[in-house]
Amino acid sequence: MPPRLSLLLALLVALPGPLAAQEYCDGQLRVESFQSTRSGGPVPKALYSVTLRNLRNEPLSVTVQFTGNAVDRPSPTPRPVPSFGTVQVHLGSQAMNAGMRPLMAQELADSTRIGCR
Questions:
Q1: Could you read off the pLDDT of 4-56 as tens digits, one per residue?
Q2: Phi, psi of 109 (to 5 degrees)
């Protein structure tokens, strides 16, 4: 195998893939995705959120708590997710000073606690 091709294959294998679907509440709730978006302004910020999907035919009450490094984290109060519906929950934000990078999806997942009532 040519050296360039083997290097390319090694790099492709090392790249992280998408997060596997994570289910909570005995399979009644699924995390669709974790998002990190950048806001403009004089001090750019990374805005973090998670999208949840209710997999059952009745409303769910969920609590979401983010323990990662972010400001304006919401309190873990119960919030409704409609039957078979989705809801996007703000996890917090972080000022993006020079040289900083936003948290990645796996880091957001590792710092998020989800429960149902």
A1: 434 333 333 333 444 567 899 999 999 999 999 998 888 899 999 999 999 99
A2: -60, -45
pLDDT digits (tens, 9 = 90+) for 74-113: 899 999 999 999 999 999 999 988 788 999 999 999 999 9
The domains of the chain, with CATH numbers, are 18-116 (2.60.40)
* Confidence (pTM): 0.79
SS (H, E, C) the chain: CCHHHHHHHHHHHHCCCCCCCEEECCCCEEEEEEEEEEECCCCCEEEEEEEEEECCCCCEEEEEEECCCCECCCCCCCEEECCCCEEEEEEEEEECCCCCCCCCHHHHHHCEEEEEC
